[in-house]
Design a protein that fits this description.
The complex is a heterodimer. In chain A, a hairpin with a 6-residue loop joins strand 4 and strand 5. In chain A, the strands form 2 sheets. In chain A, strands 2, 4, 5, 9, 10 and 11 form a 6-stranded mixed beta sheet that branches. Chain A is mostly beta strands. The radius of gyration of chain A is 13 Å and the shape is globular. Chain A contains no helices and 11 strands. Helix content of chain A is about 0%, strand content about 60%. Chain B is built from no helices and 11 strands. In chain B, about 40% of the residues are buried. Chains A and B meet through strand 4, strand 5, strand 9 and strand 10 of A and strand 5, strand 6, strand 9 and strand 10 of B.
């Protein structure tokens, strides 16, 4: 069964203090790995899709990378508005099911 | 471009009752997936609908059922509600044409079962 483990569960950063969130996954044949941002009481907001090991994608202060066993979401010089829960999800080849991790709750303090 | 919408926003039901949640997919999307998100957890896949047929199901009992309509909107029905069904129910739409499909989520329906 697909497994997605995110760490840390919670992270508190000072504004401007860069860091990385980790997503470890176990899947038979990765079809795609997704990163989402979720604000309290709202639906997840799509950030990135990564398809194969070595791939990287960037958006503003966020950069997502992928290896054969894990993905990292790097946050450079975060701002308070980056505070949210970041969710990682994987889709196995040949299946429609998308498996989510529990998320990392990020708090950026001014 | 219209995003994913869900109704109602909040709902309170009694154990044993039945509930129907609704979702309108994003313009141009042909696939709808439903997720259950308990407090402090990640979304759990319930099922997916493509071309009006169920196309993939997670570990949820048969009392969770759904429909997709020709305009790609969808309904989630839950019978015989249990206390543990209290959660945020999320609908996500995508265009299944091609490879791994990015999903775009609606704001969710908060269901409370008492």
């Amino acid at each position: 069964e697909d497994q997605v483990t995110q760490s840390p569960e919670a992270l508190r950063l000072q504004e401007g203090e860069s860091s990385s969130l980790n997503c470890s996954y176990t899947v038979s044949g990765l079809r795609g790995l997704f990163w989402y941002r979720q604000d309290p009481g709202k639906g997840p907001e799509f950030l990135f899709t990564l398809y194969s090991a070595g791939e990287e994608k960037e958006k503003e202060r966020l950069k997502a990378t992928l290896t054969k066993k894990e993905s990292f979401l790097h946050i450079t010089a975060p701002k308070p508005e980056d505070s949210a829960t970041y969710l990682c999800a994987v889709q196995e080849g040949g299946y429609q099911k998308v498996t989510f991790g529990i998320g990392t709750k990020l708090q950026v303090i001014p | 471009e219209t995003g994913v919408t869900q109704s109602p926003t909040h709902l309170i039901k009694t154990r044993g009752q039945q509930v129907t949640l609704r979702c309108s997919s994003q313009s141009g999307h042909n696939t709808v997936s439903w997720y259950q998100q308990a407090l402090g957890q990640g979304p759990q896949f319930i099922f997916q609908y493509y071309r009006e047929e169920e196309n993939g199901r997670g570990n949820f009992p048969p009392r969770f059922s759904g429909l997709q309509f020709p305009n790609y909107s969808s309904e989630l029905n839950v019978n015989a509600l249990e206390l543990d069904d209290s959660a945020l129910y999320l609908c996500a739409s995508s265009d299944r044409t091609g490879g791994p499909h990015e999903q775009y989520f609606g704001p969710g329906t908060r269901l409370t079962v008492t």
